[in-house]
Design brief:
single chain, mainly alpha, elongated
Length: 569
Amino acid sequence: MLGVLIGIIVVAILIYVGIVLYQRYLLKQITDLQNKKSDLMDLPVASELDEVGNLNLAGSSLEEYQNVQDDYRNVKNNKFPEIDELAETGQQNVNDMKIFDARSDVSGIKDAVQVIQSESDRIQAALDQIKQESEDQQNEVKVLRHKYQDLRKTLLAKNMTYGPSIDMLNDSLERLENAFENFAKTVESGDHKKAEGQLQQLQTSTKGLEEQLEAIPELYIQLNEDFPGQLDEIKNGYTQLINHNYAFADDEIPNDIEDIGSKINENLDTLSNLRLDAVKGNNETIANRIDNLYDLMQTEIDARTDVDGGFQTIAEYIEHAEKQSHTLLIEIDRLGQSYVLNGNEDSQAHDLEAKLQDIRSEHDQDAEAITNQPVVYSEILQRMHEENDQLDDIESQQTAINESIQKLIEEEKDSRRTLHQFDLEIHEIKRHIENLNLPGIPASYMDYFFVVSDEIEKLSSNMNQVKIDMKQIDQQLGMIDKDMQSLAKKTTELTDNAALSEEIIQYTNRYRHSNETVDNASKRAQKLFDEDHDYAQSLSVISRALESVEPGMVDQLTESYQKQKSTQY
């Protein structure tokens, strides 16, 4: 029981000690917040208000100052006493052990101090802005006054560089100076908000005037010096070119010079009205037109140099092509007496001759024009290029035609050599057949032999004509070549069939007395050989008979024959 009592006493002591400590903590917070309030009261806001109030503000600036002043009075007369009242109540609640009420009072004091701090910062910032605006605008008055003095000096000292725009520039500067005086009065009156708007407009207008003063001299030099000087140079150059027999296609140069001069005067009027964007665009157009005139004249000057240097070369090229054409026509006529020309070479050569005559006529006309009258050299140069291209093409065609007709001679020689070879081959075949000493030659073979022989004789006859057709001869040679190959094959077959048939008949004689079938086959094969002259069928009959009594022997005899064969047939 005593232990419980002692525990209760200890807890009570601890609670009491805790309460006492928390009371001291709350009292310290109250004291610290009162000290912060005192610091806020010591801020120089009041003196700042008096200083700004002495600036003789007006208008919206004065209205803003008065609002700030009212805000400060509210803080001074209401917020500060509120903190004192809350601090006094809080201290009393701490002493009365009203801990929760005291804690609420401390929280209220903190909120009030924060509000005062925020309001003080805002008021101070507003006052700083008003002072800064006043100071900046006072400085801007000095800067602008000095700038306008410099602009006035520039216009007086360099008025010649601005040409017809000087009057409008002076008017613009005068309007700016008047607007500046209004701005200076507004600054002096203290209406800084109104002055800020005026200042922005002044700065924009002043910048525009400065940009005009910078841009105009170059534009005016172009219109007053560069362009007129270039037009005079073009006019003099044009006159000299005309005096030296130059001409221009659709010559509008004099009209262009006059029109560009008018555009220059019109653009000077535009410059006097300070429409600089339009002046810049017009100057670019004028510059391009002048450049085009320079280019036009330079083109003719360069063209004359090329014409003078190349005109005779083209003339020599034409003469060379004409000689080539004359030689080619003579050669075509000569070869045309011996050969049929299937490639229309004569017609093609005469067409080229006609084209050469047209080129010659055109070139002679240009030569006469250059000698007797002003000419457009660029047009002559263009024709020279075209003539050169045409001559290149004509020469290429002449070469192709000449090569084509010259090949006829070689083709004839080749054809005669081939014909001679065919003649030798068919005579060799004839001698080979005769040397076989056969009892007779199959009619089908002889018919084919005479067909090929007739073809060779016909080709020989065609080759011996006064005027030969090489295309037709080439076709005949191709046909004979195929027929000769076929005849050689038929000759080989005839030779092999006859030789093998005779050899196998002799070999089978050993079986005639012992084998009736072989004997009958041998008699039939011999009849086909001697009377019918059908050597292929004779070989077939006797081969079957031999195979029936001695298989494989036919192949052995055939192989042996082929090895011993001494001729190509």
